[in-house]
Every structure is written in structure tokens, then in C-alpha cells.
Amino acid sequence: MDLRRTMLFMPGNNPGMLQNGGVFGADAIILDLEDAVAPQEKDAARILVAQALKTVDYGTSEKVVRINPLDTFACKDIPAIVPCCPDAILVPKVESPADIQEVAHLVATAEKPGQATVKLIALLETPRGIAEAYQIATADKRVVALAFGAEDYTASLGAKRTKEGTEIFTARTIVVNSAAAAGIQSIDTPFTDVNDREGLVADTQLAKQLGFKGKLTINPRQIDDIHNVFNPTAQDINWAERIIKAIRKAEAEGAGVASLDGKMVDAPIVARAELILYLSRLLGLAEEAYYE
Ligand SMILES: CC(C)(COP(=O)(O)OP(=O)(O)OC[C@H]1O[C@@H](n2cnc3c(N)ncnc32)[C@H](O)[C@@H]1OP(=O)(O)O)[C@@H](O)C(=O)NCCC(=O)NCCSC(=O)C[C@@](O)(CC(=O)O)C(=O)O
Ligand SMILES: [Mg+2]
User: Fold this and answer.
1) 105 to each of 6, 175, 176, 256, how far by Cα in Å?
2) Is 141 helix (H, G, I), strand (E, B) or coil?
3) Phi and psi for 95 in degrees, rounded to 5?
4) Which helix (DSSP H) or strand (DSSP E) does residue 188 occupy?
5) If we measure between CA atoms, which residue out of 164, 215, 165, 224 comes closest to residue 185?
6) Which of 217-240 are b and which e, b meaning 16 or more Cβ less than 10 Å from the residue's Cβ?
7) Measured from the CB, is residue 221 less than 6 Å from ligand 1?
8) Which amino acids does the record list as binding Mg(2+) (predicted)?
């Protein structure tokens, strides 16, 4: 499983940020050619991002480039970026399966022989994109995640953006459910007030509760708080260990259902416990947390 708890945006025309992007420990970095770059800077940013992909060591962070939409500069971005071997392309303002299929075709044409297959992440940030979420998620096998962009979405809706996020609740759950139905990940919208840590943590907790697997990130100071929310806690790991022990004991006694602390333990509970343990092993948390 690829971890995408944090996906850190950095403007593609900012050499300082592009140079340092790998040192913050984000699961993914997104070199942005779209909205963080002014129209007159697009050509320079494309060259800078291509160069960064070839020369900067981003460590274990997944390398993602957000291209421009198909009706603007995507046809210039894809042939310039794909041969520089990004891990994935973030496609903004996706509105239909046809958008994804067209990008997938352009990417396939631009890939060098022997290059690892470039993945696609669809950014849904319009009412139509949300309405077509499942069709978009299943439009091409390169698609590994759906991401949600609340600022563009609420601007298109004409809805006021609030900290509580009532206006985006339906869209968030559609994105999560569509991605899960397609067997891919869902990544939540960024929290745009970089000085409001409490608000960030609350918003990330809500995203996790809804089923998102990560959050778009705009500032390195947000990374640890987001990771802390998505990481299993020592309590989670302890619960998961006890669930697995309880079900193994029940199975040894010929039963498919166990009881722990008075609560029923059956297949979906066991699946949740296994996921927690898998994630904690992946993050190197299991032992440390278990023996606390
Ligand atoms: C927010 C702010 C201006 C705050 O600046 P501040 O200056 O207050 O930050 P400080 O924390 O003081 O910086 C301390 C040190 O960290 C360095 N540093 C900061 N950020 C860094 C970073 N990202 N990567 C590497 N390095 C970084 C900085 O260079 C400094 O380095 P140094 O000088 O050496 O000490 C800044 O973070 C920033 O520009 N973020 C990226 C913004 C961006 O890409 N937006 C577009 C993508 S979202 C989007 O499009 C979503 C969506 O699609 C969704 C929808 O639709 O809803 C849409 O449409 O909205
Ligand atoms: Mg946007």
C-alpha cells in the first residue's frame, strides 16, 4: 500500500521550495504547475519542475506533478514532464471519465521505453466531477486515488466556505465512497489556514472519520499534525492485538465470532484490526506502541 497521509504542494515556479521539498518527510510531494503558478510563469515553471525531477533527491516521498487542465496547458505539460519520471500526475478539475482517458493516452504516448508506469490521481473540484466520481475512479487502471478540492468546488457551487465544512460534507462522502468502491484511495482537501493547528487537527480527524486516507497539504508545518491523526495510536494497536488474539482463540474453539469486553468480534472488526496492525508495521509503530 502506498502511504499518502500527506501530499505537500509546492509552487512549480519557486526554486527554493522545490529544492527543499524532500526534507520534510511528506509521504508525497506535489510539484505544482497549475493554480500556484501565474499564467505568465507557466513555461518557466514547466522547465524548473522538469529539472527538479531530474536533479533533486526527494528521498522516499512520492513525486507527483500537478499539471494544468486539458483545456489549457496539459498538452504542453505532459510531454515535458512524463519523461522525467514522476511517480504520478495529479490531474486538476477532472469532470468525466473521458478527461482521464485523454490524459492516460497522452501520458502513455510520452512515457519512455522501460519507464515505470506513471500513475494518475484525479482531483475532483467541480460539481460535475463529484457527480461522476465513480466513473472517473474506474476510467483507467492508472488511477490510484481521488483527491478532493474544496475551494474550487465551493466557488463553483456558489457556497460559502466555512471552517465546520457543512457545505462540503456531501461531496466529501461521495469522493470517499466512490474511491472505496473502485478500490483506490481518497485524499481530502487542504486546510488553508496554516497558523490554525487546532482547526487543522479537527478537520483532519473529521476526514479520517469519513474514510479519507490522507490530506492535501500546503505547508511543511502541517505534516506532523496530519501524520499524527492518520497514524494508529498505541490504544488502536493494543485494541487490534487483542481483537486478533480473541478471534484466534474463538476459531481454535470452532467459533467464527468472538467476544471482547462484551462486544461482538466478527469478520469486519477483524479486518479493521488487521488494517491497523498492517499500517503500524508499515510505519514502524507496532512494537514501540505495543510495549508502552
Ligand atoms: C501557504 C504559504 C503561502 C504560507 O507561507 P508562509 O511564508 O507563511 O510559510 P512559513 O511556514 O512561514 O514558511 C517557512 C519555511 O517553509 C517554506 N515553505 C512554506 N511552504 C512550503 C511548501 N509548500 N513547500 C516547501 N517549503 C515551504 C518557506 O519557504 C519557508 O522557508 P525558509 O524561507 O527557508 O524558512 C506557503 O506555505 C505556500 O506557498 N504553500 C504552497 C501553496 C500552494 O502550493 N497552493 C496551491 C496548491 S493548493 C490548491 O491548489 C488546492 C486546490 O486545488 C484545492 C481546491 O480546489 O480546493 C485549490 O484550487 O485551492
Ligand atoms: Mg483547485
Assistant:
1) 28, 24, 26, 48
2) coil
3) -120, -10
4) strand 185-188
5) 215
6) bbbbebbebbbebbebeeebbebb
7) yes
8) 125, 152
Ligand 1 centroid to residue 235 C-alpha, Å? 33
Separation of CA 239 and ligand 2 centre (Å): 39
What's the complex ipTM? Answer: 0.97
Tell whether ligand 1 has an atom less than 6 A from the beta carbon of residue 32.
yes
Q: What is the mean pLDDT of residues 185-195?
A: 98
22: cell is: 524532500
Q: Which CATH superfamily, name and number, covers 6-230?
A: Phosphoenolpyruvate-binding domains (3.20.20.60)
First CA to last CA distance, the chain: 26
pLDDT tens, position by position, 250-261:
999 988 889 899
For residue 36 and ligand 1, the question of a CB distance below 6 A is answered with yes
As a whole number of angstroms, the distance between CA 56 and CA 131 comes to: 38
Taking the C-alpha atoms of 1, 193, 218 and 17 in order, what is their torsion angle to the nearest 10 degrees? -150
Question: Which residue's entry shows cell 502511504?
Answer: 3
Q: Indicate the domain borders of the chain.
A: 6-230, 234-283
Measured distance CA(30)–CA(142) in Å, rounded:
17
Residue 289 has pLDDT above 80, yes or no: no
Is 159 buried (19+), middle (13-18) or exposed (0-12) by CB count in 10 A? middle
What tens digit of pLDDT does each residue of 201-242 get?
999 999 999 999 999 999 999 999 999 999 999 999 999 999
